[in-house]
Design a protein that fits this description.
Layout (H helix, E strand, L loop, with lengths): L5 H8 L5 H36 L32 H25 L3 H42 L7 H8 L4 E3 L6 E3 L3 H13 L5 E2 L16 E2 L4 E3 L24 E4 L3 E6 L13 H37 L2 H6 L19
Helix pairs in contact: 4-7
């Protein structure tokens, strides 16, 4: 006889199995059932998505309120809150409108060019000429940088002139002034040296950094670019003037000043200051200041070049958007009389 209930069912399906094996077979069978239900749910969801994309997703109380779909040749009712019964109908209608309207708009654009287009092309030409001028100026500054290095090298090769009268004038100068940074009273002989160190002390408290190092093609010795692991940025001071990461070397006793002398402020004489560098108070740190002047001019030229690049990008974007698909489809200029000249280009007398 066969038992009634779950054991009876198992006995009918598996008559030759032991009771323990029969229980394992029942567990396997129960595990297989949810997979079938999951597959059935997936199929139902796919059917619902297909219906929702096309015809039957509307839950409207009064079907008479539904409007007909605006798609070309479509007679189905539109979806609630939409003009089309599906996304495909809207995309097909937009494509047909583009094919019908765009050729005519292109012909109108070619027949009557925009004044703004002509102004944009002129601005683009001016920007390109300005960029060429800046590149030429950068080459000149780079050449000036190499000339300055050659002048500094020639000045260091001069022989030291130990003139007792000049040293007496320097040592006898006891006039005192006040420092512009700290306000301390100092002598004229040590004024430039003290002010330079005092300024460097306060300059180290402020930082100028960036997350990326400077990679400028064709430029030599511009930014410090010292990586600070604490703040995780690269120093963006001028390498010559950075008081924190580039300290001045100690001046030897037998080093000459080497500063080129001038007449009437701007006329070079071809001679060099041959006093010892430690005793010369008129040309203190002249190499650093001359190098910083040239480097600062180079940085300004690079900033100008970056501004011109941004202007060029904006003008090109405006020209591209003006004659693009969206601009041609949304904007139109109607010229009622083809024989009449464009009034926008008329010059008022």
């Amino acid at each position: 006889m066969v038992g009634i209930g779950c054991d009876g069912i198992v006995g009918q399906e598996f008559p030759l199995l032991d009771p323990a094996l029969q229980k394992q077979a029942v567990k396997v069978k129960k595990m297989e059932k949810p997979k079938k239900t999951v597959d059935w749910k997936k199929k139902e969801k796919q059917k619902l998505m297909k219906k929702r994309n096309h015809l039957e997703p509307m839950d409207v109380k009064d079907p008479a309120l539904l409007l007909q779909c605006l798609g070309h040749g479509c007679v189905n009712p539109s979806r609630p809150g939409s003009k089309y019964c599906s996304d495909d109908c809207g995309m097909n209608l937009a494509a047909e409108r583009i094919y019908d309207i765009l050729p005519q708009r292109l012909q109108q654009w070619n027949n009557s060019p925009s004044i703004a287009e002509e102004h944009g092309k002129k601005m683009l030409e001016d920007i390109i000429h300005a960029q060429q001028d800046v590149h030429t100026h950068l080459k000149y500054l780079e050449h000036q940088y190499h000339e300055l290095e050659a002048i500094i090298l020639r000045g260091k090769q001069q022989a030291i002139c130990k003139d007792e009268e000049s040293t007496k004038v320097m040592t006898n100068n006891v006039q005192r002034i006040f420092c512009v940074s700290c306000g301390k009273s100092i002598s004229m002989r040590a004024a430039l040296r003290h002010m330079e160190h005092c300024f460097a002390k306060y300059e180290c408290k402020s930082s100028f950094g960036s997350l990326y190092p400077a990679c400028i093609e064709g430029a030599t010795r511009l930014f410090c670019d010292y990586y600070d692991p604490t703040n995780k940025f690269y120093c963006k001071r001028l390498q010559v003037l950075c008081p924190e990461h580039s300290k001045d070397p100690k001046v030897p006793i037998d080093e000459v000043c080497g500063c080129p002398l001038v007449h009437n402020i701007f006329e070079p004489t071809g001679n060099f200051c041959r006093l010892p560098k430690r005793l010369c108070i008129h040309h203190y740190c002249w190499e650093k200041l001359r190098r910083a002047e040239v480097d600062l001019e180079r940085v300004r030229a690079l900033y100008k070049l970056e501004e011109l690049s941004e202007q060029e990008y904006k003008v090109r974007t405006a020209i591209r958007n003006r004659s693009g698909l969206l601009g041609l489809m949304l904007h139109q200029t109607i010229q009622h009389d083809p024989l009449t000249t464009d009034l926008r280009s008329r010059v008022d007398e």
